[in-house]
Structures are given as structure tokens and as C-alpha cells.
Design brief:
Layout lengths: L8 E4 L2 E2 L10 H15 L6 E3 L5 E3 L8 H17 L9 H12 L8 H13 L4 E4 L22 E5 L3 E8 L10 E4 L15 E5 L5 E5 L16 H4 L4 E11 L3 E3 L3 H9 L3 H31 L5 H26 L2 E2 L5 E2 L2 H26 L11 H4 L4 H7 L7 H15 L2 H11 L5 H11 L3 H12 L20
Parallel strand pairs: 1-10, 5-8
Antiparallel strand pairs: 1-2, 3-4, 6-7, 7-11, 8-9, 9-12, 10-11, 13-14
């Protein structure tokens, strides 16, 4: 936690945060992420590996060379995802996967390849928490970066110096940026000719001079207890608009410089985008299992799990979760080994999940809403009604179940509400809907990576097997058991 006390400039509610480890908006998720690192450091959890350089590192930085390596990475990331119930979308294993992808194909970065490799090893060997900001602000999406009414709304190169560059502008969506060690700043949105000043990729410490983070409202700060809001209080990782007010970036921290093609290639010609989404879909699979577990426990508690119509809805949840998990495992089992010997999750199956993420999560939440019914609306305002002598007796008499006591029933219903009804829950539905961008963008990944040659060839072979009657007669088929 000490590394987070570096004088970073974070603003929330009109005030500058003095210490993110103690501020009510951030202290819960800081403790959560610190717990993840403690878990990784415990050898019993099997979360470390021997690197190519002979060092020991967290498996979140592993460059996979086989399907077995992909399996090891997934198992390690699943342990972290289970700890956060899948509700930490930018845990440290996300951008570490991108860095591993970058480092596995340094040639994509040309003369700056050494910068990429040096930072990757530094982050890996120091187990750094790196997150990213790779989307320009929503000012006028109909215009390219260089066509905006004002220069340097997105992050761009303001000045070139002998020992580095000065960058100016802003970038979104800094999820977990307030509590991370470093930021990777780049642009994943397509750039056009003329956008060269904005075609950059670099890393910098979050405490860098001139860097400012404007956090959205906290979903944790005003909550009475973990019992009342178990997800909001522990997993609200925060999102932030990140402003670069003439920030100096040394050349050694620059990966791409004024190069539109290299800005795109870093994500898609390396395995970075695939490895990052491998982590993301591992997390989503765990999250769906957790939500299904909540649905099953509530129906058991209410005695409705014996109704055929409820079993149908639970079965629908099971099918959706199984599809996500199955395609994740298929992408791993059918991985592709590229020219650098890196195991890439098979994009046909991985991007198949990515293309369904927005609709699957929305459907799961809708079904959970149906199954919990109105019970989540009739709960005490906080745990205090359960400990106040004036109200406790009413709570225990009127809020109970045939299978669990008052405290357990309220606890479960409050958990469900934090998934479907709280600000935290609403944010997560929006977050999953746009996790990889607008729906047409994420379905475009599936379109480009499915491999239509195979199904089209099947159709063409079948069409070639017959024609117009008389023009291309089929051979006569003898009836079974007949001779002649």
C-alpha cells in the first residue's frame, strides 16, 4: 500500500484525495487488491512461475508457449476472479496480459522494442499493478482526433525534447487507475491519416507530475457496512477521466511514437488483445457462476426451486454460463502457436464469447431479477435494524424463511440487490455491455476471426453435388436388399 502514497493527484467530489489507501471511496478496493497480491505470494496457491530470465514471477505475466501454459494462466487468474466474485474488471491480471503480449512480439515496436521488453521485465519482476487508458474522450466521435475543434482533447504529443516528450490532453476510462502503480496510455480506437500526433503508446507512474485523475462518484463511500453492500464496499474499483497536463514522458517509457500503424499493430499483430480478453473472459465465466449461485440459493431459500418454471429459468442461466466457459476452454484447447512460439487462444472461440458478452450478461441479470422477485425491495435499510432493541423483534418475526434465519435471508437479498439494483450493479451492467467497445465493434472481432472459409466451402461442395434435373443427373440409388 505504501507505493500508493506517492502524491498522486486524484479528485473526487471537488476535493483532492490525500491518501487513496484511507479514503472511503478507495480503501475497500485497495484492501481487496492487496489481498490478491497476498494470495499470489502464498506458494500454496501455485500462482508463480519461473520466467525466461530465471526469475520467479506472478503467472499473470506469463507468456504462454502451449495450451498447458494457457491452462496454468487461466487457473491462476480464476483464483483471483473467485476472490472478487468476478466483479473486479480491471484487476492487475488484465493489463499484465497485454504487456506479456507486447513482449512476446517486440519486433512490432521496431526501434522501441527494447523499451517494451525492459518495462515488461520491470513490471513482471516487481509485480506491478498496471492499468490503462486507451479510449479518447467523448467530445465529437464523428471527427478524427486531429479534426476536433480544439487540439489535444485526446492525449497527443505537445512537444518533443531531447530526453523525451511532453504529452497533453485526456483519455478514458481509467478503471482502477486511482489505485494502480502505472498507467499504459495509448489509443485502441481506429486512427486516421493526420492523427499522427495522437498515435502514441507509453507508460508512466500514476504519481507523475501533471497527471490528474477525476474519479466518478464512489459507490462505496456512503455505505453503512459490508453486510449491507458486500460488492460495492469491496470491489468498487472506480473509473476516472485521466488528464495529462503537459506530462513529461522519458524516451525509455515510449513504446510507439507518431505511428498510426504501430498503434494498431501493438494490440492485434501481437497476442496482446487475445491474452487480455482471455483474462477478461476467465473473469466473466467466474462472475456468471457467482450470479447463478445467488439465483440458486434464493430460489432454494424461497422454496421455488421445485417449480418447473423456475427450473427452466435456472436451466437457461446454466446454459449461458456453460457456453461462456466452454468457448473459453475451447479457445485454450484449440490454441494457435504463432511464428514466435507463443500460444494464442483460438480467436474463433474467444471472440465468439466477446461478441456475446453484452447480451449474455444482460440476460443473466434479467433472469436473476425475475427469480428474486420483490423480496429485495422489502429489506431493512441497514444492519442497524437487526441490532436495535426497538426494531430487532419485528425484523426476526417478519423477515425470515422456511430454510434460513433472518440474518442469512437479509444478507442474501442484500447481495442480490447489490448485483441488480444498486449503483454498483447498474455500473456493472453498463460496463459489461461496453467492455470491448460498442456492440458493432465487439461483434466485428468475431466476424473477422471466425474463419468463414470452412462453412462456405461446405456449402459450395454441397451445391456442386447436384444441379438442374437432367443437366447433372444424380447416380441411381439401389434400394436396400435388392439385386440387379
Amino acid at each position: 500500500m505504501e507505493s500508493l502514497r506517492d502524491g498522486r493527484n486524484i479528485y473526487i467530489g471537488g476535493e483532492r484525495v490525500e491518501d487513496v489507501t484511507a479514503h472511503p471511496a478507495f480503501k475497500g478496493v485497495v484492501r481487496t487488491f492487496a489481498g490478491l497480491y497476498d494470495m499470489a505470494a502464498d506458494s500454496a496457491n501455485d500462482m508463480t512461475y519461473l520466467t525466461e530470465d530465471g526469475t520467479t514471477a506472478n503467472k499473470i505475466f506469463m507468456i504462454p508457449r502451449s495450451s498447458s501454459d494457457l491452462e496454468e494462466r487461466r487457473q491462476a487468474m480464476s483464483r483471483w476472479a473467485e476472490t472478487t466474485c468476478g466483479f473486479a474488471g480491471r484487476s492487475p491480471d488484465h493489463v499484465s496480459s497485454f504487456l506479456a503480449g507486447f513482449a512476446s512480439h517486440p519486433e512490432v515496436f521496431g526501434e522501441r522494442a527494447a523499451n517494451v521488453l525492459d518495462f515488461y521485465r520491470y513490471a513482471r519482476d516487481n509485480d506491478l499493478f498496471v492499468t490503462y487508458v486507451i479510449i479518447p474522450p467523448q467530445v465529437d466521435r464523428s471527427k478524427a482526433a486531429h479534426e476536433q475543434d480544439e487540439k489535444f482533447l485526446p492525449v497527443g504529443v505537445f512537444k518533443e525534447l531531447e530526453d523525451g516528450i511532453i504529452v497533453r490532453g485526456s483519455q478514458m476510462l481509467g478503471t482502477s487507475a486511482a489505485v494502480s502503480d502505472y498507467l499504459l496510455c495509448s489509443c485502441i480506437s481506429p486512427l486516421r491519416a493526420g492523427d499522427e500526433d495522437y498515435a502514441i503508446s507509453f507508460v508512466l507512474p500514476v504519481g507523475s507530475r501533471g497527471l490528474k485523475l477525476y474519479a466518478r462518484p464512489s459507490y462505496a463511500a456512503d455505505k453503512p457496512s459490508v453486510y449491507d453492500y458486500p460488492l460495492s464496499t469491496q470491489f468498487d474499483e472506480s473509473d476516472a477521466l485521466v488528464v495529462f497536463d503537459d506530462v513529461f514522458i522519458p524516451w525509455k517509457q515510449v513504446f510507439v511514437y507518431k505511428d498510426i500503424e504501430a498503434t494498431r499493430a501493438q494490440f492485434h499483430e501481437t497476442p496482446a488483445h487475445l491474452l487480455g480478453n482471455n483474462q477478461a473472459q476467465t473473469r466473466l465465466s467466474v462472475k456468471l457462476k457467482f450470479v447463478i449461485g445467488v439465483a440458486k440459493k434464493i430460489t432454494e431459500m424461497n422454496g421455488t426451486d421445485k417449480f418447473s418454471q423456475v427450473q427452466e429459468r435456472l436451466g437457461e442461466l446454466a446454459s449461458q454460463a456453460a457456453v461462456v466457459e466452454g468457448m473459453l476452454l475451447a479457445s485454450e484447447y484449440k490454441c494457435l502457436i504463432d511464428k514466435n512460439g507463443v500460444a494464442r487462444p483460438n480467436p474463433r472461440f474467444l471472440y465468439g464469447i466477446v461478441g456475446m458478452q453484452d447480451s449474455i450478461y444482460a440476460s443473466v441479470i434479467r433472469i436473476l431479477r425475475e427469480l428474486v422477485g420483490g423480496g429485495v425491495l422489502q429489506v431493512p435499510s441497514s444492519y442497524k435494524e437487526l441490532v436495535n432493541p426497538e426494531t430487532e423483534a419485528d425484523m426476526r418475526r417478519y423477515i425470515r424463511s422456511c430454510s434460513v434465519g433472518t440474518e442469512k435471508k437479509i444478507q442474501l437479498l442484500k447481495l442480490a440487490w447489490d448485483i441488480i439494483g444498486s449503483e454498483f450493479g447498474g455500473r456493472h451492467q453498463q460496463y459489461e455491455m461496453f467492455y470491448n467497445g460498442a456492440p458493432f465493434v465487439v461483434k466485428g472481432y468475431s466476424f473477422r476471426n471466425y474463419g468463414y472459409g470452412e462453412p462456405v466451402n461446405m456449402v459450395e461442395r454441397f451445391l456442386a453435388s447436384y444441379g438442374l434435373p437432367g443437366a447433372n443427373p444424380l447416380p441411381e440409388v439401389k434400394a436396400a436388399g435388392m439385386s440387379g
